[in-house]
User: Which sequence fits this backbone?
C-alpha cells in the first residue's frame, strides 16, 4: 500500500480506540457478566474460564479482520511497543497509539460499570470482586506470588508477540493471521487466568484496576511493566533471528506497508 492511500493518523487512532474498546468490553464483560452466572455458588449457566478465554480470543479475531487493515490492529500498548522493537512500526507513532488504547479500555470499563449499575447490587459486587482486575499474591485467583506473576506475564506476552509477528510476516498467509492471533490469546488465557487473571495488555489492566479499587491499583504496575518487557524482548529477538527471512521484502523506506502488515491483537 502506498503512503498516499494509507489511512490517516486520526483514522488509525480511532481504529485503535475502537478495537481496544471492543476487546475490553467483550473480554472483561464476559468475565463480569457471564463467567459465573447467575452467581458463583450456583454457576449453572456461566461460561467459566473457558468462556472468558474464548471471549478475549474472539474479540481479537473480530478486531484483526475488521480494523487490522486500518491501524494494524494492535489494541494493546505492549503489542505496539513490541512491533516497534521488531522494526514493523514507527516509534514516533507509538505514543498516539498507546493513548488511544488506554482511552478505549477506560471507556469500555466505564460502559461495563454503567451496565452493571442496572441490576441491584451488581456493580458493588463486581467492584468488591476486583472488577476482573489482574493481581498477584492474595489478589491472584490461584494465590500465585509476585515472581510467578512476573514470569507469566513476560513470557506469555513474548509468545503472543512472536505469533503476531510470524502470522503477519510477508511470507505468511494474510487470510489466516487474525485467526492464529486470536486462538493464541485464547490459549494464553487458559494458561494464565489462575495465575494473574491474565493481562498481557496494560490497557486492559489499567482500565479494570481503576474500578477494582486501591488494592488492585497498587498492583497494576506489574501489569504495565512486564507485558511491555516481554513484548519488547520478543520484538528484538524476532528482528534478530527471523525478520531477515520472514520480512525479507519489507524495507524501512515503506513504513506504511510495514504498519498495515501488522494485524495484531490483545
Assistant:
Amino acid at each position: 500500500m502506498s503512503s498516499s492511500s494509507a489511512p490517516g493518523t486520526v483514522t488509525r487512532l480511532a481504529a485503535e480506540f475502537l478495537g481496544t474498546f471492543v476487546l475490553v468490553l467483550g473480554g472483561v464483560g464476559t468475565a463480569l457478566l457471564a463467567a459465573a452466572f447467575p452467581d458463583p455458588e450456583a454457576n449453572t449457566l456461566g461460561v467459566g474460564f473457558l468462556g472468558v478465554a474464548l471471549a478475549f480470543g474472539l474479540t481479537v479475531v473480530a478486531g484483526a479482520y475488521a480494523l487490522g487493515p486500518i491501524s494494524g490492529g494492535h489494541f494493546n500498548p505492549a503489542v505496539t511497543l513490541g512491533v516497534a522493537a521488531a522494526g514493523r512500526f514507527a516509534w514516533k507513532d507509538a505514543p498516539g497509539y498507546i493513548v488511544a488504547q488506554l482511552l478505549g479500555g477506560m471507556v469500555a470499563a466505564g460502559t461495563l460499570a454503567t451496565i452493571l449499575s442496572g441490576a441491584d447490587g451488581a456493580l458493588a459486587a463486581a467492584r468488591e470482586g476486583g472488577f476482573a482486575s489482574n493481581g498477584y499474591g492474595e489478589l491472584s485467583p490461584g494465590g500465585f506470588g509476585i515472581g510467578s506473576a512476573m514470569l507469566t506475564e513476560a513470557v506469555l506476552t513474548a509468545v503472543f508477540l512472536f505469533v503476531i509477528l510470524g502470522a503477519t510476516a510477508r511470507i505468511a498467509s494474510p487470510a489466516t493471521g487474525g485467526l492464529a492471533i486470536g486462538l493464541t490469546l485464547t490459549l494464553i488465557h487458559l494458561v494464565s487466568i489462575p495465575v494473574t487473571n491474565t493481562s498481557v495488555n496494560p490497557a486492559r489492566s489499567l482500565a479494570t484496576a481503576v474500578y477494582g479499587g486501591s488494592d488492585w491499583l497498587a498492583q497494576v504496575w506489574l501489569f504495565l511493566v512486564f507485558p511491555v518487557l516481554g513484548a519488547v524482548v520478543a520484538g528484538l529477538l524476532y528482528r534478530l533471528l527471523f525478520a531477515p527471512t520472514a520480512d525479507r521484502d519489507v524495507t524501512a523506506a515503506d513504513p506504511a506497508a510495514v504498519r498495515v502488515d501488522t494485524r495484531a491483537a490483545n
User: Anything to note?
Assistant: The CA atoms of residues 137 and 145 lie 4 Å apart. Residues 250-261 have pLDDT under 50 and may be disordered. The chain is about 65% helix and 0% strand.
